[in-house]
Amino acid sequence: MKRIAIIGAGQAGLYLGISLVDAGYAVTLFSDRTPEAILNGKIMAMPLLFPDALQLERDLGLNFWDEQFLGCDQFHNNLCDPQGNVALVVSSTLEKPWRGVDQRLKLSVWMQEFVRRGGELVVQAMTLQNLEEYAQNYDLVVVSAGRGSFSTLFERDEQKSQYDQPKRHLAGGIYTGLKGDPMKGRTFQVSNIPGAGEMLQFPFYTNSKDSAYTVAFEAYPGGAMDRFGKVQSGQELVELSKQVIQELTPWNYETVKDMELIDEQAWVRGAITPTVRKPIGRLPSGATVMGIGDTVILHDPVGAQGANNATKMAHLVAQRIVEHGNQRFDESWMQEVFDEFWQYCQHGHALTDCLLTPPAHLQEIAIAMAQNPEVARDYLNGINNPPNLSPWFFDPEESKKYLAKKTLLNSIEPEDRPVAPIAG
Ligand SMILES: Cc1cc2nc3c(=O)[nH]c(=O)nc-3n(C[C@H](O)[C@H](O)[C@H](O)COP(=O)(O)OP(=O)(O)OC[C@H]3O[C@@H](n4cnc5c(N)ncnc54)[C@H](O)[C@@H]3O)c2cc1C
Description:
Structural class: alpha/beta
CATH architecture of the largest domain: 3-Layer(bba) Sandwich
CATH superfamily of the largest domain: FAD/NAD(P)-binding domain
Bound molecules: flavin-adenine dinucleotide
């Protein structure tokens, strides 16, 4: 039986570990924290998953919260002028729900599930030295330690990494007590304010009995929203979040004015430099390990791609491990699997890039989305599966052609339309 070591019990590591245990592998998962420490600790993110990643979780029987929590069924995008007035609204019903579950709850439950299904969980903060040891004792060592840890082990891929500093400063928390129209339905709401940033609000599942929401900010460095850099406590974040909303989008203040964090640890702030790394880590002895998830492909969360990707990458790696049978997991195998994933993931990367640094043609697309539900639907399906956005979303000329076809399509009565889709 092949022995696989996985470093880091996050979205990628646990998904991979549970897949491989189910497939009959001997898997050891190293976590720097116990399930209890994760459950009672500070949040690291508030990820929302889209239908394809949710389906992968469901396929593994890891969708423990589907019945209690229906997730978002509406998308509502306020495109504001620089003063914060809503200039354009893109509103659409989601074909399948989007869901976000507090990672502290999810990962701690998944860790227990991994052990219940036969995996070995070792609580140990791994070092490079430990990796040397385990690279000798296991057939494959996969590093899924998220952002930060082991970044020196995986060389930055200069060709795939455009940025050397963050494009947004992030802050957010998980709250109860939101009220008013935007929160009546199960709405994912994002408001874009030119030069200031994006504000996000969406229902989120937590251990708390009250219904909870994420309220998050993606602030342009130095812009009017960029006020969270010195926040030291949850209470400070709450007060400042309310102030920023009151000043920048007063029409949204009523909704948040009584909100409270679900607990003192339910907040986060920071900044991410989007970075792609080479997937093979070479240890001083010459042994190699493979990186997955944020360890090697790190996005700014503005396009909500990170945890979705981590799941999809873990799924692909699990499939390729099984198919590889008894052969050695050498460098060329690791590179091939990464390259195969990059074929998919480059589009999510391009999407994030477009949202971080919006090109001029995005404005035309936004106007079309507000007017034509089919364009909005194509965009939302593209967030779920970013290759669907290529090339029309990324390339100005292709975008023109796509929008021209959609306008044409819109002028034809539904019953007279050609059976095959005109665009996409
Ligand atoms: C504010 C914010 C909002 C986000 N929103 C979204 C969103 O809406 N949608 C989305 O898809 N993504 C989102 N993301 C990104 C998403 O959270 C990450 O991409 C995803 O969690 C990555 O999964 P991972 O398994 O690679 O890493 P992680 O989930 O970070 O897991 C890594 C694990 O490894 C452990 N670890 C670290 N070092 C060691 C060590 N030395 N030894 C042992 N264990 C170690 C860590 O404790 C952690 O448990 C968001 C991120 C942030 C910061």
